[in-house]
Write the structure tokens for this entry.
Amino acid sequence: MLRFIANRLFSMVLVVLGISFIIFSILALTPGDPAQIILGDAATPEALEALREEMGLNDMFIIRYVRYIAQALSGNFGNSYRTQLPVLDELMTRLPNTLTLALFGVGMAAMVGVPIGIISAVKQYTLVDTITRTVSMVMTAIPAFWLGLILMLIFALNLGILPAIGVDDWKGFILPSVTLAIGNMAIMIRMTRSTMLEVIREDYIRTALAKGASRQRVILKHALRNALLPIITTIGLNFGFQMGGAMINETVFSVPGVGTLIITSVRQKDVPMVMATVLFVALTISTVTLLIDLIYTLVDPRLRMQNIKKAG
């Protein structure tokens, strides 16, 4: 198991390095002068050239990339071109808002979507199943920004019980979290339903029912456990992607999170901030993927043995 984890960590490092090289290359090739961004349009050519030399922008591309990675490994991600503040400090300031949205949104989606998906699968082709599938398809088709505006109109403007924008207190997280949860909930319902339908058609499920085991016990203890792997994958990946920034939700509700930080940094070609946020997203998704694989081994002992054999 330790060798398996070590192999995955090594692969994670390679993936993050590959992503960092691609993003650094794109930023280096796109138009825009960081020195001009920092000093402004009124800067003299001499001042621009002096700043380029000081920042090492006149060096070869590969030298700049290696220097950036070496500084990043030591915990120095540089200062933002836009605010002149340390990149890591600004990222850590916005991280709690994005983390809260991701936990609430994905958590609500899982707590509601998984039980509804199970019920829909157990009652296949009934009225309950038809209504569930219809509602899930409608939720999938609703644009997040439109849903956010509708919720804002109802609960903030008409009823006046929730704030429209900002996250000054816990009430500010309700509308963006619900908006995020509804889209993920539709995915969870459809994934759980399809996975459960595959499992409950297996021979061992019919055998257990034929031997007199209660249907509820068979569904919850046997069928659900074997259907958990795709469900865990969906939950984990959704959480990882949302940690990268629920950009639409954060923009609509003016939430100062990682998503809005990425958008602002890309627009202004704030290279240190873009690199730090992209590396954070890549590392988060890679870590969540590793955790999903480890959870797999706890849920399914067969996978644990396979991983041990592969690692050996």
Q: What stands out?
A: The first helix runs from residue 2 to 29. The radius of gyration is 24 Å.
